[in-house]
């Protein structure tokens, strides 16, 4: 079943990237003794806080953290549904990867204990710095899998995973830990990994993250109607900001004709990227829009596009 934009479904993603601990394997990891010993019991981002430590304290902390991870790895078990989900992906030739904040030694020990294989594309914190939620390791994993970030689904169980996925422009799926305050960051939230396997077999169209609040306010049918609209972007005050506002209101297509970015355009829209000078406006605007709205198209031409300003008046006044 094909799904037309602005809807999506993970069954149509070209690759999957998973967090490791808590998503594919599970074990007894308790970081509270380290927090008590080094950070006065504060719940902090351990790896990021370690960067601020001076030597030799930093090295001692990282060694203790690795020892803790490795000791817990020997007791790891597969998360229910993990092996079936991996088999599902591999039987369909869908590439997958693992990106984790764990150390490589602990991941390999957990893989042996739980009998969950690590894929060829596996990135630990030893392989890539800084770790997620920095998007760089996720973007690198997508390149190694031979796919574009917006074509990937990233599956995690923690807010760092969702933040990393959002920053990498990937579809982000939350499983196993449905914390209420994390849900707005996810494209899809499921109670268990086995639920994800069930969803892959039932490709009902889903509203992606970037349109979720809009769909709740105007309805999915109106979202679908808006998305097929093509707007004309003209060099007038606020044109760059207006294009983003139109995209947030559901516009799925933009035409910029043959405009090239020149210095005068910054007086009209100062938030335009500095590196845009001398480049086609459509190319620059399309790249910027797709950072947040990956389904949006920028077209070379279109019969009778609606001026962005007219579109905004219509939609912001309930038309």
Automatic annotation (TrEMBL):
<keyword id="KW-0378">Hydrolase</keyword>
<dbReference type="InterPro" id="IPR006439">
    <property type="entry name" value="HAD-SF_hydro_IA"/>
</dbReference>
<dbReference type="InterPro" id="IPR036412">
    <property type="entry name" value="HAD-like_sf"/>
</dbReference>
<dbReference type="GO" id="GO:0008967">
    <property type="term" value="F:phosphoglycolate phosphatase activity"/>
</dbReference>
<dbReference type="InterPro" id="IPR023214">
    <property type="entry name" value="HAD_sf"/>
</dbReference>
<dbReference type="Pfam" id="PF00702">
    <property type="entry name" value="Hydrolase"/>
</dbReference>
<dbReference type="InterPro" id="IPR050155">
    <property type="entry name" value="HAD-like_hydrolase_sf"/>
</dbReference>
<dbReference type="GO" id="GO:0006281">
    <property type="term" value="P:DNA repair"/>
</dbReference>
<protein>
    <submittedName>
        <fullName>HAD-superfamily hydrolase, subfamily IA, variant 3</fullName>
    </submittedName>
</protein>
């Amino acid at each position: 079943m094909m799904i037309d934009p602005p809807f999506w479904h993970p069954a149509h993603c070209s690759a999957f990237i998973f967090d490791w601990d808590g998503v594919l394997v599970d074990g007894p990891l308790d970081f509270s003794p380290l927090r008590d010993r080094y950070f006065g019991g504060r719940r902090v981002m351990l790896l990021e806080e370690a960067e601020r430590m001076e030597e030799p304290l930093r090295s001692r902390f990282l060694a203790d953290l690795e020892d803790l991870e490795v000791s817990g790895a020997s007791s790891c078990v597969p998360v229910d549904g993990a092996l079936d989900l991996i088999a599902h992906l591999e039987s369909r030739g869908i590439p997958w990867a693992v990106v984790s904040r764990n150390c490589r030694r602990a991941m390999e020990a957990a893989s042996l204990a739980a009998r969950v294989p690590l894929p060829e594309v596996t990135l630990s914190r030893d392989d890539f710095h800084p770790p997620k939620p920095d998007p760089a390791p996720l973007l690198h994993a997508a390149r190694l899998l031979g796919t574009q970030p917006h074509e990937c689904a990233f599956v995690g169980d923690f807010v760092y995973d969702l933040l990393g996925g959002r920053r990498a422009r990937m579809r982000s799926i939350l499983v196993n830990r449905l914390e209420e305050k994390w849900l707005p960051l996810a494209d899809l939230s499921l109670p268990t990994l086995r639920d994800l396997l069930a969803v892959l077999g039932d490709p009902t169209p889903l509203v992606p993250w970037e349109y979720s609040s809009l769909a709740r306010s105007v309805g999915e049918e109106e979202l679908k109607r808006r998305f097929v609209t093509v707007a004309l972007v003209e060099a007038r005050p606020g044109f760059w900001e207006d294009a983003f506002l139109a995209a947030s209101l559901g516009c799925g297509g933009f035409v910029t004709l043959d405009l090239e970015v020149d210095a005068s355009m910054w007086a009209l829209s100062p938030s335009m990227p500095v590196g845009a000078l001398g480049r086609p406006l459509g190319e620059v605007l399309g790249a910027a829009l797709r950072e947040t709205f990956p389904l949006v198209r920028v077209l070379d031409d279109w019969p009778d596009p609606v001026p962005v300003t007219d579109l905004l008046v219509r939609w912001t006044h309930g038309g």
